[in-house]
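We emphasize that the prediction below concerns an isolated chain of 123 residues; any contacts that depend on oligomerization or on bound cofactors are therefore not represented. The input was used exactly as deposited, without trimming of termini.
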Amino acid sequence: MEQMEQLKLLMNYTIFHIGIYLTLSGLMVSLLGVDAFKKRTEAMVPYLVVALICFMVAGIFGGLIASNIPYFERFADFTQAWIGPWFATKLLPASFCMTIEHSAFWLGLIVFLFGFWRTGRQL
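Result of the prediction step, given as a token string:
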């Protein structure tokens, strides 16, 4: 596959993920206001906070990835580069940022689902 095509796919993939993080965060917060979940609301708060923090971290790293992709012409160059939020601050390897983005998302989702399951058993 052409290197530029891989970069385009990574950009689309990352943008899609950022949209998922925002959508799921809004959904999780709105569940707290639904009458059917009023008994769970207080017990869910710690799980929800952890999950939202994880989604925020995933979104930050997703934004970092997406904002740096346009500066590269080859996928291999991007994955081996150090990137950062400003031009002069190349603080983290891009591959590390991609790993943190995925890990934070899945950890947040697992924490939320575990909390949802756990609080449902307490009712």
